[in-house]
Amino acid sequence: MRILMACAAFPPFIDGGGPISAMIVAKLLLAAGHDLTVVNVSGEDKQEIYDGVPVHRLRSLNVDWNYRLPRPAWKKLVWHALENFNPRAFLVMRREIRRLRPDLVLTDSIENINVATWAAAKSCGVPVAHILRSTFLLCWKGSMRRGNDNCERACASCQVTSWGKKLSSRFVDAVIGETGFIIARHRDHGLFPNATTHVVPGAIAPVPGAGPRAAPTADRPLRIGFIGVHDPVKGLDTLAAAAHRLKDEPVEFLIAGSGQSDYAKALPSLFPAGNTRFLGWTRPDLFLPEIDVLAMPSLFREPFGRVAIEAFAHGVPVIGARSGGIPETIEPGISGALFNAGDDAALAERIMELARDRAQVARFSAGAFAAAARYAPERIAAGFDAVFAGLVRQPNGTRQLQPGEVRP
User: Fold this and answer.
1) Are the C-beta atoms of residues 114 and 91 closer than 8 Å to each other?
2) In angstroms, rounded to a whole number, what is the distance separating the alpha carbons of residues 81 and 96?
3) CATH code of the domain occupying 222-374
């Protein structure tokens, strides 16, 4: 199948997990035998093979493309307005679709490449699948948070500033989420009214030499790890409070990652110095073998939480907050444990249970390592193929019907 994969961002530009996830999907589909070309926006117009993936990089379709850099307020307003439907993006992406003549257009996130891509594909008679990675279509910040609180629903201002995205979503034939949570959040707001829905989680390759861990010995502290951006939404205050509760217990906290904010700079002062080590930016494949249990105390409703499956691949169980899609990944009593987001007492209790019963850590490790098989690349690639099989065009230009569906 020939696939045009339009991405919000793609390596080497990395502003978070999205571009990395897009690269993983692109490589999965290429390995599965698809003829795939990535189209994304960057600072220049060029075609290249990047890490084995054919990529056509376009000059900005909006007023600028790197929205992570500082810019004046007027430019932010124009950028957000055009993200609701950008006529230039429609024309450019229709040109790309006509040039590449794909069987399917797959959008992996939609910022910059624009919701107009969906309309462009429809105008060319090409089916569209979209992968959700954030709530950008519902909230201009992409987080659905206001202040220190999660928004139960999109507020009035976000609904008004996202009307074009919602309207354009009717052109999407299939919507793919890494969890059922992120799909339901969009469908509850009326997006993707004509799309079939599919949960296809992220993929994680097996780690050479990894396997279930033996029980940590009683002559050393139980090592609880955190890795990620140092931001309040990640629940680090909760983890710090739990660390204070356990400062006299045989537990050690290893904190990896970094941040540029004043909060990140002050973070070491929130944790007890006696049982906490800050490691700075660290590669997950080097960090995860050093810990016994991973903590995911996120207050933000994570669409997925890729770090959990990275831990599973190393045989590391996870204690996670009941926040967003995290509970769909962790099986309590099998691959880890759950607690209510923000409840530091419950988090400390879950940690202490494992510190007192080291054999339980080994059982959870075995469960975590077994769970990693659900995210094996070949299994996830098959999940995408199953979605695409229902969308590909027949010789007469129509798509296959879904079971029980009647053609209008």
Assistant:
1) no
2) 23
3) 3.40.50.2000
